[in-house]
Every structure is written in C-alpha cells, then in structure tokens.
Amino acid sequence: MKKTNQLFATIVVLLLFCAPTLQAQEKKEVKYVTVTKSHWNLDKKDFKMSEWKAAEKEYLDKVIKKNEYILSASTYIHNLTPDNTEV
C-alpha cells in the first residue's frame, strides 16, 4: 500500500508541474495561409520566361519583403495536368 501511495503522489506532483503547459487558454499566434491562382496567356508571341521571372522577383523585393506581416511567399508553376497556364 505504501508503494501505491508513493507512486500516486509522484504522478500527482508530475502532473502539477506539467499543468501550466497543458492549459487550453494559452495565447497562440494566429497565422493565415492565402493562395492566389492566376493564369498566363500562352498565345503571347514575345513571351520570355526570364522577363516574367524578373517581374516576379521585382514584386517580391519591392512589395512582399517590405510587408512585416508576410512570413514567406512562393510562386509555383502548374505542370501536372494539360492546363499548364496556372501560376
């Protein structure tokens, strides 16, 4: 019986030390994920991928990186289905 009481007391003490980290009222930082989908015109005759990448990089440097609330940004080119106009 004495071992059971000691084991029970040890578990209670451990739970008391862990209780502050298990509270549901902890203040958590809210983060949002935004996805923007656009299409480009593949019929354009003078389209150059290097110019498009330069324009995307300029927008990233001048707009996105200066906004303190944007944690990260990525641009992906869709190439998994026949509709490869998605950016």
Structure report:
There is one protein chain. The chain has 87 residues and is an all-alpha fold. The chain contains two helices and no strands. It has one domain (1-66). The protein has helices at residues 2-18, 49-64.
What topology emerges from the helices and strands here?
Elements: H1 2-18, H2 49-64
Secondary structural class: mainly alpha
Please tell me what the overall shape is: elongated
Low-confidence stretches: none
Give the domain tally: 1
* Rg (C-alpha, Å): 27 Å
List the total number of helices. 2
Helix content: 25-40%
| Major sheet size, sense and barrel closure | none
- Intertermini distance: 69 Å
Mean of the pLDDT scores?
77
Strand content: under 5%
Written as H for each helix and E for each strand, in order along the chain, the element string is: HH
Count the E strands. Answer: 0
Keywords: Signal
Describe this structure in a few short sentences.
The chain is 38% helix and 0% strand. With 87 residues, the protein is an all-alpha fold.
Features of this protein?
38% helix; 87 residues; mainly alpha
